[in-house]
Design a protein that fits this description.
Elements: E1 2-7, E2 21-27, E3 35-38, E4 46-49, E5 54-56, E6 59-61
Antiparallel strand pairs: 1-2, 3-4, 5-6
């Protein structure tokens, strides 16, 4: 989630000391459906996977690659 805002502070009068929020926007990212937690929207930007998927690097896959050992978190 990103939070952005702008100030209402008057720069033209040095005797005026105030602060406020003019505009505010909150941006939320949704994860790929295979991801439980992520840092982007792509299947290759996962931190953890949804139930039934396995994390390989930052990608959630349907099954573990051959000869790999899954870990529990």
């Amino acid at each position: 989630v990103a939070l952005k805002w702008s100030s209402l502070t008057s720069q033209s009068d040095p005797n005026v000391q105030s602060w406020g929020i003019k505009d505010i926007s909150i941006v939320g990212k949704t994860c790929h459906r295979y991801c439980d937690k992520c840092f982007g929207e792509s299947v290759s930007e996962c931190l953890t996977c949804s139930a039934g998927y396995f994390l390989r690097g930052n990608t959630c896959v349907v099954k573990c690659p051959r000869l790999s050992i899954p870990t529990t978190q």
